[in-house]
Amino acid sequence: MSPLLMLLVACNPQDLTVSDASYFVWLADNSSASLEDGSVARNSLTLVDCGPDAEPDDDGNYPGCPEGMAPDDYNPEYFSWWADDRYYLDQGELDPWRAEALITNEGDFQITLHHEIGKEDFRFAFVIDPNFEPSICIQEGQSCYTTDDPANIEDSDGDGWADYHDPDCLYNSWEVGFAANECNNGIDDDGDGVIDADDEGCEHAFDTAEAQVSETCRDNVDNDDDGWIDDDDPDCFTDGEAEAGRLNDLYACTDTVDNDGDGVADGGHANKDGDDGCANPLDNLEDGPTDADPCKDDFDNDGDGWVDGDDVDCEIHGEEVGVTTARCNDGQDNDGDGLADAMDPGCLIALDANEEDMVVITVTPEDTGLDPYDVFACADGEDNDGDGWVDLDDPDCILGVDEDNAYFGLTECNNGVVDDPGGPEA
Asked: Can you give the pTM of this predicted structure?
């Protein structure tokens, strides 16, 4: 929902005028009271049935999933609650019959919008901390689900993917541009002249490689006996070349070795018993979860070199589950210097997409009497390229090795152009 609001705020509720807003609501098939009592009719909504029990049609497609996607694309890594039920989607322009705003006793700004869906009064309420500082730039019109016509969805951020095809719309309410996956990063990763959604190697935005996928990654066979099949096998989802065990030795849960001595190894499927300690093929420990909170125990529970809040797993999954496909969290020495991931000085964070050593600059303090000192250009607290973004907030520092505008222009919020006339320069 993206309301543009004009209001007078006081301690008591004040009338609120909504000048432009849209909404989207997910209603669970088996637990929504509005569906159960008929207040909202199912036949007026869009059914999205993409849970693990979804069945393909005769052509092998999943009609209940977004086009080109299968249940494994959503579950459980990206959309864990999806596994619990089928969901109906309602979306459209927000036309509240009542809107109000107030300051709560805690000093927060609260907005409540009453909108009728079917015969039900849906209340959209949210609270904003007055001291909140946005970390991303949202342009007008970037909301997810800006049209109520599922056949005519809009790509609001220009990354080639729209609405529930766009990873942004699974985590947020707006489309904000490119992400880390090769099929949603704005880069021609396989050098074939086409990018992301336009590349035939990208079936969906969650694909981790633009290259065409080998037949051994589509045959529903565990070709390398590591317990993982097709899209679940690192060989396939890393680059799709062939399911041939090329990457098996990188991970404890794919190396065909019983690392924890419990009698079973790696992943499992109908024809192979797997180790319950392997949460996924990139898991680097077969021991399984600890009793303590794995994101607050000062321990590297998945053996990927990143601990607690520094491990991206803790933000996405709430636990440490192994390496990912990001260059600084994939278990590989990508730059050939003998160091990998968290041990490589080229990796400032787990989501760093480039393991090459960061550019070092020499800082000479003025009028302090202090000696000059060396620091990473991406960790000096300065906007070295003048694009308005500093250090790890700058795409140059995530995709490259220097804050030098090498990746300037990928998004509207980092291209130096006023893309929304009348607004400030991004």
From this structure: 0.37
